[in-house]
Structure prediction request, 192 residues.
Amino acid sequence: MSEMVKKYHVALFIKDDNGNWVRVKKSTAFELSLNPELQDYDYLTDQNPTTELMRYKPSLSQAITMYKDEPDYEIVFSKFYKLDTGSQAKTDILIVFMLMGDATNGYKAWKNEAVLTVQSMNTVDSTITVDINFGGTIEHGTCLPDPTTHAPVFTRDSSGASGWVDPFEAPAESTSVTDGETSETDGETTEP
Prediction:
């Protein structure tokens, strides 16, 4: 019998100001919107226009319960308090799909630089709401916890993000990201 995907099977991590991955734990919703961008073409030989799917622009809204000293709240509150804009509003995010893969070979994962836009603070409901808007190219890969620190270690697929490889960039077999440090390797994940 197939296993149903539950809320705890998909993990969201946000990189803090110190370069450490922090798992979002105190949110009460997880709805990843792909926001497809469509375009209509009115081809000469067709009677009606044809709609083509051009790309996706994923986003995710998180209503985080405000527990002081909880790491996910502290990241969002810091951006709220400082009114971060521009590059200060950007951070890396990691989404790990834990039912897609295994503890030996890694779980399927996306890594992306996203813009965190704090929308509101609701003191009655004790929530702070942040929109996470993906930017640029989503890196596809796998993720495993570091055996010592349990921090996520992301390894980019060798085919490149989204299956497209920029011919003007040096090829890399994989990229390992551990607590904010990136290193190019020959197909092996480096230990911190």
